[in-house]
């Protein structure tokens, strides 16, 4: 049976795709064969467009090179908006069962499905489903990604409250430090998150200069969780 990991975030543009890439690399390095899935890709002119998260993953994971990234895109909607509104713009309707069927099919011969959310947790997918609701619907384990810098204490604690309100707890919190936040501030952010939620940040991802050459030590912190 395949393990379903759901990479969710406090916001858009904070490093969910980059962490998904690290998780994929980590799992391949351990001998697993994970599958990446982006259920709702918006701002998507085509699933193989350079803007697509799946295309990013397939470009930088050596084991996926030459494979078709569109296999990993559930819905592809043109406008860069919440999936619900982007679907309306494209005159389409999101059917969660369509995504569940992709998961079921890929679970047959993959060790893990690494699902990437769209935007933050309270982003509408349909008129009565938010991204956070799809965690339950997909029966997946959430991993919360947040920025390392200013503003992250608030965003992270709010996201954790939303998860806890729905009786969920992330398997891990990972901070992405893409704008050289000083380590003293990152430490304070980690301290505050732990103090007020009781949940530990398990790793910080620093700037990656070249995605083609990601050293193993960039994802070594994933050894601290049971993926
Ligand atoms: N650690 C990092 N090193 C280098 N670039 C990063 C890092 N984290 C994020 N980025 C860049 O920042 C942008 C947003 O990250 P991304 O993972 O696409 O965010 P999200 O999936 O949450 O929208 C992308 O251009 C990505 O390449
Ligand atoms: Mg992304």
Q: What overall form do the CA principal axes indicate?
A: globular
Instruction: Identify low-pLDDT runs.
Output: none
| Largest sheet properties | 7 strands, parallel
Write down the Rg.
Answer: 17 Å
Structural class: alpha/beta
Using brief descriptors, characterize the structure shown.
single chain, 227 residues, alpha/beta, 7-stranded parallel sheet, 34% helix, globular, binds adenosine-5'-diphosphate, binds magnesium ion
Structural notes for this entry:
The mean pLDDT is 97. Strands 3-2-4-1-5-6-7 form a seven-stranded parallel β-sheet, sandwiched between helices. It is globular. The protein is built from seven helices and seven strands. With 227 residues, it is of the alpha/beta class. The chain has helices spanning 16-29, 53-60, 83-89, 96-107, 131-137, 152-165, 183-197, and strands spanning 3-9, 35-42, 73-77, 112-120, 141-147, 172-176, 201-205. α1 packs parallel to α2 (53-60) and α6 packs parallel to α7 (183-197). 34% of the residues lie in helices and 20% in strands. Magnesium ion (MG) is lined by residues 16-17, 53, 116. The site of adenosine-5'-diphosphate has 14 residues, from α1.
């Amino acid at each position: 049976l395949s393990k379903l990991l759901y990479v969710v975030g406090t916001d858009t543009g904070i490093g969910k795709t980059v962490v998904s890439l690290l998780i994929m690399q980590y799992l391949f390095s351990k001998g697993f064969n994970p599958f990446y899935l982006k259920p709702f890709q918006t701002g998507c002119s085509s699933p193989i467009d350079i803007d697509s998260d799946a295309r990013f993953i397939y470009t930088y994971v050596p084991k996926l090179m030459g494979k078709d990234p569109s296999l990993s895109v559930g819905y592809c909607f043109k406008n860069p908006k919440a999936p619900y509104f982007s679907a309306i713009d494209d005159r389409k309707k999101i059917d969660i069962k369509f995504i569940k069927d992709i998961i079921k099919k890929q679970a047959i011969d993959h060790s893990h499905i690494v699902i990437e959310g769209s935007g933050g947790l309270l982003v509408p997918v349909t008129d009565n489903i938010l991204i956070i609701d799809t965690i339950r619907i997909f029966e997946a384990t959430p991993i919360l990604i947040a920025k390392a810098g200013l503003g992250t204490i608030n965003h992270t604690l709010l996201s954790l409250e939303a998860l806890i309100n729905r009786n969920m707890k992330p398997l891990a919190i990972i901070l992405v430090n893409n704008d050289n936040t000083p380590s003293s501030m990152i430490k304070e952010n980690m301290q505050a998150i732990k103090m007020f939620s009781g949940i530990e940040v398990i790793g910080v991802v620093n700037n990656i200069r070249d995605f083609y050459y990601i050293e193993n030590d960039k994802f070594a912190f994933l050894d601290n969780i049971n993926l």
